[in-house]
């Protein structure tokens, strides 16, 4: 059982399930919710890369999510730009702003970094909310177009958008897999474990932290742009700090610093929230204590807890095997004597 439930198999099972999901259910609402789940997963992967693998918790993630969404909305609705050109520019704008903010933010460490990014996120929210001439303020942007056609492929229907978002999510998972299992990923983990030690062995921590910060904002902007094109209407609330805490909840429950944690946590919490909609105003009274207990007893979330159990199980088997070998050797020595 433990061999079957490794991270690669969990991701493969998720891919197969996601592909056949629209055929299992004909309910349009469920397909809508699952598409939104995929979009949140992309944002959570960006947060995981920075917080889980590098050890820097950014609380401005919702701000960059909103920048991606509003960049696409403004370029398509107000500038009447081609969708895919606007989409690429939205990602570029988010990444450039992430680079500029990261230059200052990464001069701080630990809780100072979290506080600084929290302030940045709130400033982004205020700019979106108050700059009426550009963002339409509390009225929001209406009429954001669906993804444009790519040759014969059309993305006007919810089902086609579902598979488009799924395809982009799979690309994100592939990129994350390649990063985590590369020398770059090991460098990020080395910075997380001990930044001072990483510096002593010749790792350029400033360069690597800035790179991972920009990658994190890129994923947040990608999720935001997809959200805007899928929902077709956006308001300042998408830049609210609550969105960051939602993404962080998905990550912590699924498993921070794990490859399959964002998938597990997002799917679990989104669908539980759907079943508990009648308690929407009190959901943090439910998730708050659960999250607190999870962090106390299983700080690496559900996936991390499973791998901890798996490691202990394998260690126990090795100890039993060693004891058995020692008994056999002892018996042989007695016979020879």
Describe this structure in words.
Keywords: Cell membrane, Membrane, Transmembrane, Transmembrane helix. This is Branched-chain amino acid ABC transporter permease. Its main location: membrane. The chain crosses the membrane at residues 7-24, 30-50, 57-77, 83-105, 112-128, 162-180, 210-235, 247-272, 284-309. InterPro entries: ABC_transp_permease, LivM-like. The chain has helices spanning 7-24, 28-52, 61-78, 83-105, 110-130, 132-135, 158-180, 183-193, 195-200, 205-231, 241-254, 261-275, 283-297, 301-336, and strands at 141-142, 233-234. The longest helix is centred in the last third of the chain and has 36 residues, at 301-336. With 337 residues, the chain is an all-alpha fold. The chain has a single domain (7-303), classed as ABC transporter involved in vitamin B12 uptake, BtuC (Orthogonal Bundle), CATH 1.10.3470. Helix 8 packs across helix 10 (205-231). It is 76% helix and 1% strand. Strands 1-2 form a two-stranded antiparallel sheet. The protein contains 14 helices and 2 strands.
